[in-house]
Amino acid sequence: MKLIFATSNINKLKETRKMGFDVDCKNIELDEIQSIHTEQVAKHKAAQAYAKLRLPVIVEDTGLYINELNGFPGALVKWLAHGLGYEKICRLVDICGNRRAYAETCIAFCNGKTTKTFVGKVKGRIAMHPKGKRDFGWDYIFIPEGSTKTFAEMSMKEKNAISMRQIAFVKLRRFLSGKGLV
């Protein structure tokens, strides 16, 4: 079975394919609920996507959780970055005094009968300043644990080897294999 990936984000699609997932992309309009929790957002989008396509579908949502801000912005990071910019997010974290954070991806699979979620999480910290050349969201400001580079400074191969998206997709693959769907 070839998976349908409902996304309008070309970078998510590229990373997914580079990880070895052969997916068909459907760019459909989905409402995104306002929550810091990636799992809530992904489940909501998966149900909508299935209702529109009437085919088994996956959707994905990713968030950046800053420990000192009680997990904010989480899944709202895109909106915070649009409003403040990455440099100001780094300055906000300066005030907190603690740069610890984690990145989380939730993939939701929906086949009309059930919705199942798969979460990948990577601990790390917020950089002092945005760094890197790869233009993909907040990758400029997140340094995964055990690294000195932001995700944006890494090659796609380096990032995919340790990313929260990779962890979530490995869990999805295991689930689909167990069901004989891949």
Note the main sheet. Answer: 7 strands, mixed
Which structural class do the helices and strands define? alpha/beta
Q: Residue share in helices?
A: 25-40%
Distance between the termini: 6 Å
Query: Which word captures the global form?
Result: globular
User: Which regions are unreliable across 5 or more consecutive residues at pLDDT < 50?
Assistant: none
Q: List the secondary-structure elements in sequence, H or E.
A: EHEHEEHHEEEHH
Q: Tell me the number of structural domains.
A: 1
Notes on the structure:
With 182 residues, the protein is α/β, with parallel strands linked by helices. The chain has one domain: Maf protein. The chain is 36% helix and 25% strand. The protein has six helices and seven strands. The protein has helices at 10-18, 38-53, 77-84, 86-96, 156-162, 164-178, and strands at residues 3-6, 23-26, 57-66, 73-74, 100-110, 115-126, 142-144. Strands 1, 2, 3, 4, 5, 6 and 7 form a seven-stranded mixed beta sheet that branches. A hairpin with a 4-residue loop joins strand 5 (100-110) and strand 6 (115-126).
